[in-house]
Specification:
alpha+beta; Dna Ligase, domain 1; D-amino Acid Aminotransferase, Chain A, domain 1; 6-stranded antiparallel β-sheet; 4-stranded antiparallel β-sheet
Length: 324
């Protein structure tokens, strides 16, 4: 009998590998003295002991809807400057519904959605087809190929499965049929640098796969030995669409008060208009060019090396704090 308390199989998907941690440390050590600190129960005392001039934050943590806010909150408690967005923005963006509520208030286009605690809350007027996702996860955790649902039975099955597996509500989002993009940005208002747009080409997925960037597409079908050639960067888009996307990114950055760096995911609706599907204020940064990591890929297309990307984030944070 399966242990009901067994964690989901993709529990650690958001955690940075030793390779990534070493690459970030190496990039920082080109210019700074670096003290590695694990984001565990000893983090607070170590931060208090060392009092770093600046904390380079990549801590995802493991549990709870506010897990990405924990280390930045400690930094604020200890009056330590740190890179990236503040605890409130990190928490809002990890809760997909809260982020979309704010975007909707500011009339930034995002797909219609509902949050559900269980399948009993499914109503007759819920939009189909739809994407079903765990509410508080990233890195495509829980977004399997079968999370694109087209019938009420499929919807009910996915809602039940995800609520049980991840012990959290789900968000059910109207499926947009158009092209999918992800866009990295660096800096702080009024100076936000939008990196070259990355397209996620669904035609490159295995035959019969749902046209979504699923967990399988990110972590199973795509390997270093046999990479899934799913990304086009810069995306092959016309000037009008590029300007629409860049304008949207600028608005999202300001409305959600993103800082230093972020990656924002979009899809086109049935009229070809871009809509925001997710906001990532703590983006993935796999260092190896053979790995499909979108922010480093976009940064390389803009002329940044990996080390320059990491150092640029430090410079942006230092400028915000007035650190010379």
């Amino acid at each position: 009998m399966e242990d009901e308390d067994e964690p989901p199989p993709d529990l650690l998907a958001e955690c940075d590998s030793d390779e990534t941690i070493l690459a970030v440390q190496t990039a920082l050590e080109e210019r700074f003295a670096v003290i590695p600190i694990e984001s565990d129960e000893y983090a607070c005392s170590l931060l208090q002991q060392h009092k770093p001039d600046l904390v380079f934050n990549i801590a995802e943590r493991l549990f709870g809807p506010n897990r990405e806010s924990q280390i930045p909150s400690l930094c604020e408690y200890l009056h330590l400057p740190y890179t990236g967005s503040d605890p409130l923005t990190l928490g809002i963006c990890l809760d997909k519904s809260r982020a979309k509520e704010i975007l909707s208030y500011y009339q930034i286009p995002t797909p219609a959605f509902r949050t559900l605690e269980n399948a009993l809350e499914i109503s007759d007027n819920m939009p189909l087809p739809a994407i079903v996702k765990p509410l508080y996860e990233g890195s495509s955790k829980g977004i399997k190929d079968n999370c694109l649902v087209r019938t009420r039975d499929e919807l009910s099955a996915r809602v039940t499965e995800l609520c049980k597996t991840y012990d959290q509500p789900v968000i059910v989002e109207a499926f947009l049929p158009g092209r999918e993009f992800t866009v990295g940005a660096l800096g702080n208002p009024p100076h936000i640098e939008i990196l070259p747009v990355v397209e996620i080409d669904h035609s490159r997925l295995p035959a019969g796969a749902a046209p979504i960037y699923s967990y399988e597409a990110k972590w199973i079908w795509d390997t270093r030995e046999n990479p899934l050639k799913i990304f086009q960067c810069p995306a092959l888009i016309d000037r009008d669409l590029r300007l629409k996307i860049e304008t949207l990114i600028q608005r999202v950055y300001r409305v959600l008060r993103l800082r230093d760096w972020a990656r924002i995911d979009l899809r086109l609706d049935d009229l070809g208009e871009p809509q925001v599907i997710e906001v990532n204020p703590l983006p993935g940064i796999l260092p190896n060019p053979d790995d499909n990591s979108c922010l480093p890929k976009a940064a390389r297309a803009a002329g940044y090396s990996y080390n320059q990307l990491i150092q640029r984030v430090v410079d942006e944070a230092a400028a915000r704090y007035g650190i010379g």
